[in-house]
Automatic annotation (TrEMBL):
Protein name, UniProt field: Class I SAM-dependent methyltransferase
InterPro entries attached to this UniProt entry: Methyltransf_11, SAM-dependent_MTases_sf
Record organism: Halomarina ordinaria
Keywords: Methyltransferase, Transferase
Keyword Transferase appears in the UniProt entry: yes
Keyword match Methyltransferase: yes
């Protein structure tokens, strides 16, 4: 997986949220959380697995809304941040964080109602195997996001030390079919790449976001840098 050693470093885990979801990055956090809520709701009593849960921003949010959720991550430092977040939110008894490899999930077939992964597939070196594992342990729904090839993300990617794996719509559809999944819904967003929003103050970012949404609506998402894929197990 791209950047695996970097991702597991303690100092990266400690600063992860503050660097990505402060200033204009708050808009990204809000949008991603809403995408997860829209996909999984109603979540009361659902058994959910989050792959690559990181610092637990989704895991804790879903626990607060009644999901029976497990967050899995390969980084001990990230998992520790997640546990601290759960403790501050008062839901540490309502979720579980475990260390694990997304390529070999330590669960039986059909164990969860929903399996999802955010900010994961752009780092995946073998996306087909990861998606197949997600499908194996889900009895109903798999949800994830990708960064898109036909977008400004392509230019932004050149500036990143690790880069990102970028996907076309047709590639995602092939991956879904190969994993035994059927696409149920899709959504596309953010013509301007994430790095742009994170670099400017929140009030200015919101003005750009209004323009971004308007442009996205007018071009039907064809230039979107991010896509959300909601699939059902066949």
């Amino acid at each position: 997986m791209k950047g695996q050693e970097w991702y597991q470093a303690a100092d990266v885990a400690e600063e992860y949220d503050s660097k990505r979801f402060s200033q204009g990055g708050r808009l990204i956090d809000e949008r991603e959380k809403q995408a997860v809520i829209d996909a999984i709701a109603p979540m009361e009593g659902k058994r959910v697995l989050e792959i690559a849960c990181g610092t637990g921003r989704f895991t804790v949010m879903l626990a607060e809304r009644g999901a029976d959720i497990v967050g899995l991550d390969i980084s001990a430092a990230m998992v520790q941040q997640g546990r601290e977040r759960a403790r501050r939110a008062g839901v540490e008894d309502h979720l579980q964080f475990i260390l694990g490899d997304a390529a070999r999930l330590p669960f039986p077939d059909d164990y969860f109602d929903v399996v999802f992964a955010m900010r994961f597939f752009h780092l995946a070196d073998t996306p087909a195997s990861f998606l197949s594992e997600m499908c194996r342990v889900s009895r109903d729904q798999v949800f994830f996001d990708t960064f898109n090839r036909a977008s400004l993300r392509t230019v932004y990617n050149w500036l990143l030390p690790m880069g990102s794996r970028l996907y076309s719509d047709s590639e995602v559809l092939r991956l879904l079919h190969g994993a035994g999944l059927r696409l149920d819904e899709e959504d596309h967003d953010f013509i301007l790449p994430y790095g742009f929003y994170r670099s400017i103050p929140d009030d200015i970012a919101r003005r750009f976001r209004d323009v971004d949404v308007s442009l996205g609506d007018s071009v039907a998402g064809s230039l979107a840098s991010v896509s959300y894929w909601d699939a059902k197990v066949e």
